[in-house]
C-alpha cells in the first residue's frame, strides 16, 4: 500500500479568516528524466484535517517526502504559517513542526513507552559526556499521554506488550505526521484512533491525511485534494463530494479540473 501521512501543528485557526498552516506552491520534482511531481499546489487550513487521495504512482509519497525533508523539490516553494521554508533533511522538518509516521510506526518493541517517545530526541545535560535526563523524559511522557484518553499502561511498560491501538497512540504522541493511521487495526481500535484525531483537531491541531480508505477520509477530513500522475487534478470540500466522485477524478473518468496542461 502506498505510504500515507498526515502532519499536525499546534496552531489554531483564525476566528474570522481561515489561515493557511501549509502551502505547497507549484512544486516540481524530477528524478532524472522521470517527473514525479508536476506543478503541485495545495494548501491546508489551520485547525482542519485535509486529505490527499490518489492511485499508486500519483505522487503522494513523493510529496510527503518533500514535506518531511527526505527529498528537496526541483522547483517550487513550501510555506508554513505563510513563511517559505527549505528543509534539507527530516531534522529540519521536525524543527518546523513536521514528522511522518508510516505504517510500521518505527517503535522499538524492547524499549519502554517513554523511551520510544524520546527516541532520537533524548533530553540531555552536561558537557562533552552528556547524560540523559531520564526523570524529565518520563515526566514529560506522562504529560503527553494524559490527554489522549486511551487506555495506556504505565509509561515503564515495554512497547511489545501494547495492543495495536495503544502502539498507535504512543506513535501519535511522538509524531505530528501520520501514515495510514488505522492500517491493521480492529474496529474498536480504529474508532479510538479516529476519535483521537478528532479531539486533536478540536484542540486546534492541523492535519494532512493521506489514505486509500475513502470511508475514513470522508469521516475525518474537511477538504480533499485529488492527485493523478504527479498533478493535483481536483479539490473538494468533503461535505460537497462523494466517494464515487473521488474515484472518477482519480481514474480520469472525470476530467482534471486543475493542473491541466493545454494538451490534456
Write up what this structure looks like.
The chain has 264 residues and is of the alpha+beta class. It folds into 2 domains: 1-101 and 175-264, 3-Layer(aba) Sandwich (Rossmann fold); 112-174, no CATH class. The protein is built from 8 helices and 10 strands. The chain has a 4-stranded antiparallel beta sheet with strand order 2-1-4-5, covered by helices on one side. Strands 8-3-9-10 form a 4-stranded mixed beta sheet, with helices on one face. Helix 5 (164-174) runs parallel beside helix 6 (187-202). The protein is globular. The two termini are 28 Å apart.
Short description:
The protein has 264 residues and is α+β, with helices and mostly antiparallel strands.
Strand and helix layout:
Blueprint: E1 20-31, E2 34-45, E3 49-53, H1 60-67, E4 75-80, E5 83-85, H2 90-96, H3 113-117, E6 124-125, E7 131-132, H4 134-146, H5 164-174, H6 187-202, E8 207-210, H7 214-220, E9 223-228, E10 231-237, H8 243-251
Parallel strand pairs: 3-8, 3-9
Antiparallel strand pairs: 1-2, 1-4, 4-5, 6-7, 9-10
Helix pairs in contact: 5-6
- Going by CATH, the homologous superfamily of the largest domain would be P-loop containing nucleotide triphosphate hydrolases
Task: Assign a percent range to the helix content.
Answer: 25-40%
CATH architecture of the largest domain: 3-Layer(aba) Sandwich
Rounded Rg: 19 Å
CATH domain class of the largest domain: Alpha Beta
For the largest beta-sheet, the strand count, sense and barrel status come to: 4 strands, antiparallel
Amino acid at each position: 500500500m502506498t505510504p500515507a501521512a498526515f502532519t499536525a501543528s499546534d496552531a489554531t485557526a483564525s476566528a474570522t479568516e481561515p489561515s493557511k498552516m501549509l502551502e505547497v506552491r507549484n512544486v516540481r520534482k524530477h528524478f532524472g528524466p522521470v517527473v514525479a511531481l508536476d506543478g503541485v499546489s495545495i494548501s491546508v487550513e489551520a485547525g482542519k484535517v485535509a486529505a490527499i487521495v490518489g492511485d499508486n504512482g500519483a505522487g503522494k509519497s513523493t510529496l510527503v517526502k518533500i514535506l518531511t525533508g527526505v527529498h528537496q523539490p526541483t522547483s517550487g516553494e513550501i510555506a508554513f504559517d505563510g513563511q517559505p521554508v527549505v528543509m534539507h533533511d527530516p531534522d529540519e522538518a521536525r524543527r518546523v513542526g513536521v514528522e511522518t509516521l508510516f505504517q510500521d510506526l518505527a517503535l522499538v518493541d524492547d524499549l519502554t513507552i517513554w523511551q520510544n517517545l524520546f527516541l532520537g530526541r533524548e533530553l540531555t545535560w552536561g558537557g562533552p559526556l552528556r547524560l540523559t535526563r531520564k526523570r524529565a523524559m518520563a515526566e514529560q511522557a506522562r504529560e503527553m499521554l494524559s490527554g489522549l484518553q486511551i487506555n495506556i499502561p504505565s509509561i515503564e511498560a515495554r512497547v511489545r506488550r501494547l495492543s495495536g491501538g495503544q502502539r498507535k497512540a504512543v506513535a501519535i504522541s511522538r509524531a505530528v505526521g501520520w501514515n495510514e493511521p488505522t492500517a491493521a487495526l480492529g474496529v474498536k481500535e480504529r474508532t479510538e484512533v479516529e476519535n483521537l484525531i478528532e479531539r486533536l483537531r478540536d484542540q486546534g491541531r492541523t492535519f494532512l491525511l493521506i489514505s486509500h480508505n475513502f470511508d475514513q477520509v470522508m469521516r475525518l477530513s474537511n477538504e480533499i485534494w485529488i492527485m493523478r500522475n504527479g498533478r493535483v487534478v481536483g479539490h473538494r470540500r468533503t461535505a460537497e463530494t462523494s466517494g464515487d466522485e473521488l474515484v472518477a477524478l482519480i481514474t480520469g473518468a472525470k476530467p482534471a479540473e486543475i493542473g491541466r496542461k493545454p494538451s490534456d
